[in-house]
Amino acid sequence: MKKRLIPAALCALAAACTSSGALYESGNPPAVRMVASEILRNPSPTNLDGIPAGKVKWNYTTGLELLAIADAGRMYGIEEFTAYAERYFDTIVRPGGEVLTYRKTKYNLDHLCPGRALFELYDRTGDVRYKMALDTLYAQLQAQPRNADGGFWHKEVYPHQMWLDGLYMAQPFYAEYAVRNLSGGEYEKAVDDIVNQFVVVAAHTYDPATGLYRHAYDDSREMFWCDKTTGQSAHAWGRAMGWYAMAIVETLQYLGVDDATQPMVGILNHIYEVLPKYADPATGMWYQVLDQPGREGNYLESTASAMFVYAMLKGVRLGYLPAELGGEARRLYEKFVDCFVKENPDGTISLTGCCSVAGLGGRQMRSGTFEYYISEPVIENDCKGVGPFIWASLEIARPA
Asked: Is residue 187 within 8 Å of residue 251, measured between CB atoms?
């Protein structure tokens, strides 16, 4: 029987306590409560991420959260959730396969991320426009500008730059497309290319002093924000490394672990060996500027923490991380809920402590300094945290 969660029922779930126990005692799993809360806050999926009513945008943040919402709908058998996600893609992918507001010639890796939901939509509906859109996105990837070592540029307007964020935007899509559509030598070449993206960015962003990976690097050494010797940005930003950890786990789920992908497994394990050193001792959570724990002005940031917890839970379940980390991953999930998830008077729940946005260069001349990262707005319910929190909650709900 399909379950339904209506606003009246949700409103009855209000509780005064903000602990993880209260979420479970409410009678609905945290993933279900968060999705239902988001739908109440954003009755139209096109309005996610603050997009004004009447507008539509092909947007990686929207696509990320809707993929998580659809996953929750499928796991719990709640048709309203999957239908909500589908409404966005049904609106933005036109009958001829064109995607509104998308332009291939921008060569923006961010624009590949929302395409991931189209694989399942095409499987379920057989609607050829979704396959046409997928092929268009793959064509962008095939023509994406690269550095000499094969690393994809993050965007056409950011020449020679690789950002850790970009690994999540492109590689899970690339891997799923390859598994579904390529074979033989063509598939093997794609796998080698995918793995190379992870290896190249690791080599260029690694900071031996901390063991962390910096937000980005500029292969040309020309950008004002980079070190002129290494090309690296100034800091390891929490969410950038969160994107990177998620990218490894979600790419490996398609490619599997073998000799070809073993370097990715090694990078993932290194990340989780180093991360505890930079966590807040009291909460177990991580800071906005990851390599500056406890520094005045720095703060515990939820989107990065959600990504780290989710990737850890999934990495353990799929065997990419040691099984003995499973208990710690579950403990960190509970810590995350205690730290960042709050009950609202109307019975919804919210994710607090989200960095709204951060980047490098661009029109805003973003410097990548400590002062820059802590100056960006802190908001609630950012898609980039809500999606990973839903996924982490689904991991917790899976049978041990």
From this structure: no
Query: What does DSSP assign to residue 48?
Result: G
Instruction: Tell me how far apart the alpha carbons of residues 277 and 282 are, in angstroms, rounded to a whole number.
Output: 13
Gyration radius of the chain over CA positions: 20
Token reading at 88: 């966005």
| Nearest CA-CA partner of 312 in 326, 331, 302, 291 | 326
Q: Binning pLDDT at 50, 70 and 90, where does residue 400 land?
A: low
- Between CA 217 and CA 318 the distance in angstroms is 30
Q: State the pTM of this model.
A: 0.94
CA distance 123 to 241: 32
Beta strand spans in the chain (E): 161-163, 206-207, 212-213, 216-218, 341-343, 349-351, 354-355, 378-379
Q: How far apart are CA 241 and CA 347, in angstroms?
A: 33
First-to-last alpha carbon distance for the chain, in angstroms, is 24
Question: Rounded to an integer, what distance in angstroms lies between the CA atom of residue 17 and that of residue 319?
Answer: 35
Q: From residue 130, give the alpha-carbon distance in Å to each of 85, 91, 121, 207.
A: 14, 12, 7, 41
Which pairs from 267-274 meet CB under 8 Å and 24+ separation? 267/198, 267/199, 267/202, 268/311, 268/315, 268/320, 268/321, 269/320, 269/321, 269/322, 270/211, 271/213, 271/241, 271/244, 271/245, 272/245, 272/312, 272/315, 272/321, 272/325, 273/211, 274/210, 274/211, 274/212
Q: Which SS3 state, helix, strand or coil, does residue 94 take? A: coil
Give the domains, in start order, of the chain with CATH numbers: 7-397 (1.50.10.10)
User: 337 near 30, Cβ under 8 Å?
Assistant: yes
The pLDDT tens digits for 132-186 are 999 999 999 999 999 999 999 999 999 999 999 999 999 999 999 999 999 999 9
Q: What does pLDDT average to over the chain?
A: 94
CA distance 331 to 309: 10
CA angle in degrees (0–180, nearest 5) for 308-331-343: 85
DSSP one-letter code for 44? S
* Short-list 323, 285, 301, 198, CA closest to 250: 198
